[in-house]
Write a structure and sequence with these properties.
Blueprint (H helix, E strand, L loop, with lengths): L2 H28 L10 H23 L1 H13 L2 H26 L5 H23 L1 H12 L5 H10 L2 E4 L1 H6 L1 H7 L6 E5 H11 L4 H19 L5 E4 L9 H12 L3 E3 L2 H9 L4 E3 H7 L9 E9 L6 E4 L5 E4 L9 E12 L2 E8 H7 L1
Parallel strand pairs: 1-2, 1-4, 2-3, 4-5, 8-10
Antiparallel strand pairs: 6-7, 6-9, 7-8, 9-10
Helix pairs in contact: 1-2, 4-5, 10-11
């Protein structure tokens, strides 16, 4: 039996009793000077009691479970930081109103009776709104007061470790997030909203085999992240009303929570940056940690395929950087030593051009 059904039955019982008492009083009053066709006291009692039961069954949820459910949905969408700031602000406003209650009560009638009540409403709301509006500064002050015994670096490290990072669907499917998290380069907790998880499940159930495989890989990556004891992963029911697209919800949620988004989606990256949201792009990280080589340096590469131009061979470094070897076709399926001649940075990543060191030595 659901909670709403229980409250409907309770409301019906209570209003039936109230209706019967009220119906009995109406019946007694009507039968003091009865007219032809006047109902008896019992009939009044039964009729009004029945009306009360019907009203209780229909109306009770609108005063009990439905407002509670609405409040629960509102609280789900609001971060804990916002709730805490609003509570402290309301308490501060009510304290000010209490201090002003006695002076205001000394005002002439009717102001002396009305102004204390209005002061409670005004200062309570103003305090709550002010603290929510400046919640970032408020939490920062509390963090500073709490960390007075430690050094500034320790306080910064504590704040850094307590931050939240929103995960996009694309970065979960990508899979590299699990390896990055294990290295410790992502301090803080990883937050996955329910709508991101729903999108991931939708992809995993797709009729397209490739999309289904990518979605299932994302599920496996998420499961491995949750099993890691050093990586705090939270799945939250927090949602954004009035927005349908997942990317738009992530941007709005990141602005509300004042946290970065971890993604490798180029479009989401651009939209988030335009709205002032910090973006952690896995592709940019991958390009940033690739080996830096200068022309003239020597390296070893395994030539695995032919290049576009005549005589070229292509190999790859451990980090995936493409190495185009001049006259490398004759070294196919061999590991050779090459000297870097040029490093080219493209939109797709970094490309290295080189030539075999043997031919370089023979030129001299």
């Amino acid at each position: 039996m659901s909670t709403e059904t229980i409250f409907r039955l309770l409301g019906a019982i209570i209003l039936t009793i109230v209706g019967m008492i009220w119906g009995q009083q109406l019946g007694i009053s009507a039968n003091q000077n009865p007219l032809p066709g006047t109902l008896s006291v019992e009939q009044y009692t039964f009729a009004v009691g029945l009306v009360g039961a019907l009203i209780g069954l229909i109306v009770t949820p609108y005063f009990t479970t439905r407002p509670a459910r609405l409040l629960r949905d509102v609280f789900k969408r609001v971060s804990a930081q916002t709730l805490f700031s609003g509570l402290i602000g309301a308490i501060a406003g009510l304290i000010i109103a209490a201090l002003l209650a006695y002076p205001l009560s000394l005002l002439p009638t009717p102001f002396g009776q009305v102004m204390p009540f209005l002061a409670v409403i005004f200062f309570g709301y103003t305090g709550m709104a002010l603290f929510v509006m400046r919640q970032g500064d408020f939490v920062g002050v509390l963090s500073a007061l709490r960390g007075n015994g430690g050094t500034t670096k320790e306080n910064q490290a504590s704040a850094w470790s307590e931050r939240t990072i929103l995960l996009d669907t694309s970065v979960i499917i990508d899979g590299r997030i699990a390896d990055i998290s294990r290295t410790g380069f992502l301090p803080g907790s990883l937050l996955i909203p329910r709508f991101v998880l729903n999108e991931l499940q939708y992809i995993a159930d797709s009729p397209d085999a490739m999309r289904r495989q990518r979605g299932r890989r994302g599920m496996e990556v998420l499961a491995s992240l949750q099993k890691e004891p050093t990586i705090p992963v939270r799945i939250s029911d927090i949602d954004v009303e009035g927005v349908r697209e997942v990317d738009d919800k992530l941007v709005v949620l990141a602005r509300q929570l004042k946290c970065p988004i971890l993604t490798n989606d180029y479009n989401l990256n651009r939209v988030a940056e335009l709205q002032g949201v910090i973006v952690l792009n896995v592709n940019e990280l991958a390009n940033a940690v690739k080996s830096v080589l200068l022309p003239g340096e020597v390296m070893t590469v395994h030539v695995i395929q032919e290049g576009r131009e005549s005589g070229q061979g292509v190999g790859y470094m451990d980090d995936g950087t493409m190495v185009v070897v001049e006259n490398g076709r004759e070294y196919m399926d061999r590991e050779i030593t090459v000297m870097v001649t040029k490093v080219l940075q493209t939109a797709a990543g970094r490309m290295i051009f080189a030539r075999p060191e043997e031919s370089n030595g023979s030129d001299h």
